[in-house]
């Protein structure tokens, strides 16, 4: 059944008009032909609100008695039984009277939603758990009725019922909210203008966060990577230099210009590590400054700093990016545009601020776009410094044998070798050195830097251009290889995640372990903020505000602040990674894992709740089955016995001796059948409770079978017994074995055609003795007969409602108590073969016997 939708009217304080808006919505839907009922509405005697109830069907409330008082509550079962399209249920955070099926009304609403009914409800912001302590600080009034934010946040629609504090106070003064005797106290305490303004701001900010979550989900679902300036987010880039303090304060002032704007600081760590020795200390100080200003700090990895910054900014939907002006001197700026200029050129819709500071011209952190490591670049310089001095005297010794083009090709090969090892910069250095060496040693006039022939000059210039071109291609190829490897890793991670979703995997620990292994992390922890706590930036480091929902690896994080990266997930969840900083481009992959982890956590908790509810459901099912058994299986023999006794009580002249004997036999047989059914029912209950003890002892099959058949009375004349010689003794409780055989033979006789005999045989296999009870009655063995072995089931229960076949249930339970099994099989030609398998004791001699009993 499709789940119903939840719509919530959110208010900042009582009296803003939530219930009025809810009833107005109900009237609008009813006018459009929607089936609307009122499940629970509290009007508090307000005439305009009560007027909106006219024309709407009201489901009667249920009456509850508690401590001598009478209360009325929402009748959830009645609403579900009525099954309208829409139910209006007021006061979502209400606490039910003790003794109710659910503790909170929002739990009742969950049941209604699961039944496929849409619910329209109301709640005040002071009842939300995340702001409950803030409301207490503002108003001085503790709120004992709270509701998890997740319940409201996951509603399909949340609408703010807004009113200015002045208008609300006027409404209070006119007596439209509280009775006249309570107005003065309310206006001077809870309903002060300052309190109402603060509550209104809390409601607006909370709803803005929900809208922001909805926007992020929409952008993720539709693959929208561009920036939507729906809310200002200011990202400040920190390099670890001393100018970071100035940048943070400047970014904070930019964020303060827009109320509700977010401030985020990000530091890009390259594979080369920090260039400044003081960078770690500077970053620690700047991180504390960011958090003191209400912002958050993030760290990502990337060798291409502009790309990493923009990837992060777009990932968090930033609208503004604050960078420091370059610290390099004029000479350095001639060779590279720098991070700031490159970022501005690629920023697209993100506004970039280049902020001046006192560190300009004092040196800068080197920004590199190379895909090669520092070790390879050093190896390239070392190769150039080695091969060129060796190549020059070698070619000089062969000056008479080699021409100028040969010398140029030899140096070009050397430069290409340097480029392959060290990339662009070592190759450029080798090309310039090769140009000078060729000019000095091999271009006439030799041993001077003059060039006599224009062709030789052109050849030298061509050499330099070829060397630069080859070096650039090698460098680009190295970077593309690095990017491709990273993209491949991300694609594989997403593919693995998608595969786990398609396969229906919900194991949270498995998901987190896969993420940890993919990125080589020390630990991955899913943190959840504790209910009733707020998550302001200054409390992010408090372990008391967080609890570990799940985690893998060593050294799990207790707060988001302890990890190298944290990914917020919805409301109050955070995926925290520890081990090393991650590339900015990996953030979207991490967000996908974080979203799936949240789903897995919710699924895990739902399964835990279902597991807790399963014994209750099983007990209810068993109780219903017992009542069903009593109402059917016991009614027939009881009615027959009652009728026989009543007829025997009539005057003697109305009955002959034969009639009295027949009635006496009927009453006796019915009562015996009733005693048998009650005995089975009691033993099945004792089996399920684990109070039926066993006393196993060695038993001979040829001895126990006749004793069991004797208790059947005349019916044993319809049983053929075929027990071969050499059957080992059983290790079992004799009373239990007799009871099993009686029930099996009774069941076989019940389903056998008139005149058809039941066959009872025995055999042994390994360390087991098998006794078979074979009938040729009902065909169609599977799947019916396996079902009859379950508690309170019978073969024809679904069709005729004849009650519960407890005999087979008891037989299987007794067999399992003794370490045996009872398995139904199909008899060739039609019918059922019940196979009782029990463990053997010491071998015992026996003889074959075949006789009609």
Automatic annotation (TrEMBL):
Q: Where are the transmembrane segments?
A: 378-398, 410-437, 457-478
Arranged from A to Z, the UniProt key words for this protein are: ATP-binding, Kinase, Membrane, Nucleotide-binding, Phosphoprotein, Transferase, Transmembrane, Transmembrane helix, Two-component regulatory system
Catalytic reaction annotation: ATP + protein L-histidine = ADP + protein N-phospho-L-histidine
Membrane topology is: Multi-pass membrane protein
User: Can the keyword ATP-binding be found in this entry's annotation?
Assistant: yes
User: From which domain of life does this come?
Assistant: Bacteria
UniProt-recorded name of the protein: histidine kinase
Species source reads Streptomyces incanus
């Amino acid at each position: 059944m499709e789940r119903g939708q939840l719509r919530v009217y959110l208010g900042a304080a009582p009296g803003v008009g939530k219930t009025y808006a809810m009833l107005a919505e109900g009237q609008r839907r009813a006018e459009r032909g929607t089936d609307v009922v009122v499940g629970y509405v509290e009007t508090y005697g307000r005439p305009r609100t009560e007027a909106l109830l006219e024309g709407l069907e009201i489901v009667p409330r249920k009456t509850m008695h508690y401590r001598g008082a009478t209360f009325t509550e929402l009748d959830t079962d009645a609403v579900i039984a009525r099954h309208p399209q829409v139910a209006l249920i007021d006061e979502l955070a209400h606490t039910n009277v003790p003794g109710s099926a659910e503790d909170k009304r929002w739990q009742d609403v969950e049941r209604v939603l699961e039944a496929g009914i849409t619910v329209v409800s109301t709640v005040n912001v002071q009842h939300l758990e995340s702001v409950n302590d803030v409301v207490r600080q503002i108003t001085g009034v503790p709120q004992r009725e709270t509701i998890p934010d997740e319940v409201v946040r996951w509603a399909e629609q949340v609408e703010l019922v807004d009113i200015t504090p002045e208008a609300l106070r006027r409404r209070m003064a006119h007596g439209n909210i509280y009775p006249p005797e309570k107005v003065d106290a309310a206006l001077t305490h809870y309903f002060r203008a300052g309190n109402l303004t603060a509550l209104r701001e809390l409601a607006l900010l909370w709803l803005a966060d929900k809208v922001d979550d909805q926007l992020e989900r929409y952008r993720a679902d539709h693959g929208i990577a561009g920036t939507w300036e729906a809310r200002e987010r200011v990202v400040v880039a920190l390099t670890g230099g001393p100018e970071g303090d100035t940048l943070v304060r400047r970014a904070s002032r930019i964020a303060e210009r827009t109320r509700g704007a977010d401030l985020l600081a990000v530091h890009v760590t390259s594979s080369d590590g920090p260039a400044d020795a003081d960078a770690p200390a500077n970053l620690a100080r700047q991180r504390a400054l960011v958090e003191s200003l209400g912002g958050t700090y993030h760290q990502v990895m990337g060798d291409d700093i502009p790309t990493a910054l923009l990837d992060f900014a777009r990932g968090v939907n930033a609208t503004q990016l604050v960078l420091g002006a370059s610290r390099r001197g004029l000479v350095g700026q001639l060779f590279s545009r720098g991070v700031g200029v490159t970022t501005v050129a690629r920023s697209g819709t993100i506004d970039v601020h280049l902020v001046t500071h006192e560190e300009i011209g004092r040196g800068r952190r080197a920004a590199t776009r190379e895909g090669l490591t520092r070790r390879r670049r050093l190896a390239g310089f070392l190769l150039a410094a080695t091969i060129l001095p060796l190549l020059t005297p070698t070619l000089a010794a062969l000056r008479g044998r080699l021409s100028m083009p040969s010398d140029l090709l030899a140096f070009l090969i050397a430069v290409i070798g340097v480029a392959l090892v060290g990339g662009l910069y070592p190759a450029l250095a080798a090309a310039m050195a090769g140009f000078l060496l060729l000019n000095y040693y091999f271009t006439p006039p030799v041993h001077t830097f003059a060039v006599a022939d224009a062709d030789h000059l052109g050849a030298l210039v061509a050499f330099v251009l070829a060397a630069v071109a080859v070096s650039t291609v090698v460098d680009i190829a190295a970077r593309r290889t690095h990017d491709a490897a990273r993209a491949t890793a991300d694609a594989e991670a997403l593919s693995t995640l998608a595969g786990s979703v398609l396969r229906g995997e919900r194991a949270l620990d498995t998901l987190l372990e896969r993420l940890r292994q993919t990125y080589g992390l020390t630990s991955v922890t899913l943190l959840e903020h504790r209910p009733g706590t707020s998550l302001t930036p200054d409390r992010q480091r408090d372990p008391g505000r967080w609890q570990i929902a799940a985690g893998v690896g060593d050294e799990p994080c207790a707060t988001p602040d302890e990890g190298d990266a944290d990914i917020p997930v919805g409301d109050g969840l955070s995926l925290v990674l520890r081990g090393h900083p991650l590339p900015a481009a990996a953030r979207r992959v991490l967000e996908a894992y974080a979203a799936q982890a949240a789903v897995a956590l919710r699924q895990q908790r739902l399964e835990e709740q279902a597991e807790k509810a399963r014994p209750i459901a099983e007990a209810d099912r068993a109780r219903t089955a017992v009542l069903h058994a009593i109402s059917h299986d016991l009614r027939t023999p009881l009615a027959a016995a009652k009728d026989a006794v009543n007829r025997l009580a009539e005057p003697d002249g109305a009955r002959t001796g034969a009639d009295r004997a027949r009635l006496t036999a009927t009453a006796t047989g019915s009562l015996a059948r009733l005693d048998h059914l009650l005995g089975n029912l009691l033993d099945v209950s004792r089996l399920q409770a684990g109070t039926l003890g066993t006393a196993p002892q060695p038993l001979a099959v040829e001895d126990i079978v006749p004793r069991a058949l004797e208790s059947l009375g005349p019916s044993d004349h319809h049983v053929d017994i075929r027990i071969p010689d050499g059957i080992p003794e059983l290790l079992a409780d004799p009373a239990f074995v007799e009871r099993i055989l009686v029930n099996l033979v009774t069941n076989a006789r019940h389903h056998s055609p008139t005149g058809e005999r039941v066959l009872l045989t025995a055999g042994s296999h390994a360390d087991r003795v098998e006794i078979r009870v074979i009938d040729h009655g009902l065909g169609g063995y599977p799947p019916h007969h396996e079902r009859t072995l379950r508690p309170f089931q019978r073969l024809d229960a679904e069709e005729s409602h004849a009650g519960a076949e407890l005999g087979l249930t008891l037989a299987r339970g007794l067999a399992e108590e003794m370490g045996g099994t009872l398995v139904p099989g199909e008899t060739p030609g039609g019918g059922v073969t019940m196979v009782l398998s029990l463990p053997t004791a010491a071998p015992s001699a026996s003889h074959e016997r075949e006789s009609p009993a």
